[in-house]
Amino acid sequence: MRSVSFSANNHVTLLSGGAAFFPALIAAIDSAQVEIYLETYIFAEDETALQVQHALTKAAHRGVAVRLITDWLGTGRVRTSSLEQVLLKTPIMHRVFNPWFRRGVVRMHRKMCVIDRQLAFVGGLNINDDMYSDDGERLRLPAPRWDFAVRISGPLVAMVHDELEGQWMRLGEMKLLARWQQFKRARSTLRRAGRGPVVAGLVVRDNLRNRRMIQRAYLHALGHARHSALLTSPYFAPGRKLRRALEAAAQRGVKVTLLLGVGHYRLQDAVAHSYYPKLLKAGVNIVEYRKTALHAKVAVIDDKWATVGSSNYDGLSLLVNQEANVVVRDAEFSHKLRQQIEAGIADGVAITPVDFINTPWHLRAWYGTAFFVYRFLMRIITIGNRG
């Protein structure tokens, strides 16, 4: 198992929500001269997505090599089909990840883009309007979806490019020898590099080379936490190791706070609630974000370590899906992200042990049932994927 490979002298800008992310992404696409790789779980058919699609089309028509990767399940069967028909009339090259579950249940849940090998974006935002729910019902949200991405320039961009280029090659017609050579090249290009502003690394999760890389990054950071740990996720169902790491940090005096999304899926909320009693007993602070849809997968530990990306704290993200996070070791960046998370906590509702003491028995039974159903399904889904 490889450790995180860091590079120094990067410039990493935090982008808060679609209002910051999409103008930055479209401006970068408009400035592209040679190539664009864009990978997303959802590529919707709304005004925001069509603006991105139009920018990609313009770039392709002026001679930029545009390669788009979308997930079949995330984007949806109907939208994937219509998107393919539209893109056939343009120079854009499009490949779809795991159509009709041909590779099992694994999904490509990453959100990344690289422009001319000079500029990269990594985060949690799909290509969709952040004023509407992304569950297929397209309900208008009370406020923009709460999410983050980063814009990167510097040595780390090369690692993002290599990851996207490798993904593109694997999804195409690629012979076994070429796959093996690409696999070796990906291993040899990862290295620990230097000191200086800003030190950052790309951590990815797949079922071949990096089966537990993201989880290990979290475990390492929590294991070295001394003062505080702020973690945010819309879907919360941690495995035993991550749960124990959270509890151990709190028990040795670290102020651990979880900011969790609720209200998206009833079963998911029940599963998350089943973890609350032990975490609260260990001293972990839990805050539920109810202002709007929380989609952010971010964390800050001791104002020295921060991460932004696509990975939730659940079995699908940590054991099944392809995910991508950026880890940043920089006080200034960590402080900015901490301020954003603290603002989210201020908008949330704190959960206390008393809340669960007074929970009706039938709700406690529902939480326990949801947990066992979830664990049973995850054991089936992760057969052969546990690493």
UniProtKB/TrEMBL annotation:
The active site is at H109, K111, D116, H295, K297, D302. Belongs to the phospholipase D family. Cardiolipin synthase subfamily. ClsB sub-subfamily. The keyword Lipid metabolism applies. Its EC number is 2.7.8.-. Gene3D superfamilies: Endonuclease Chain A. It catalyses: 2 a 1,2-diacyl-sn-glycero-3-phospho-(1'-sn-glycerol) = a cardiolipin + glycerol. Catalyzes the phosphatidyl group transfer from one phosphatidylglycerol molecule to another to form cardiolipin (CL) (diphosphatidylglycerol) and glycerol. InterPro entries: Cardiolipin_synth_ClsB, PLD-like_dom, PLipase_D/transphosphatidylase. PROSITE patterns: PLD (PS50035). Keywords: Cell membrane, Lipid biosynthesis, Lipid metabolism, Membrane, Phospholipid biosynthesis, Phospholipid metabolism, Transferase. Residues 104-131, 290-317 form the PLD phosphodiesterase domain. It is found in: Cell membrane. It is a peripheral membrane protein. This is Cardiolipin synthase B. The keyword Transferase applies.
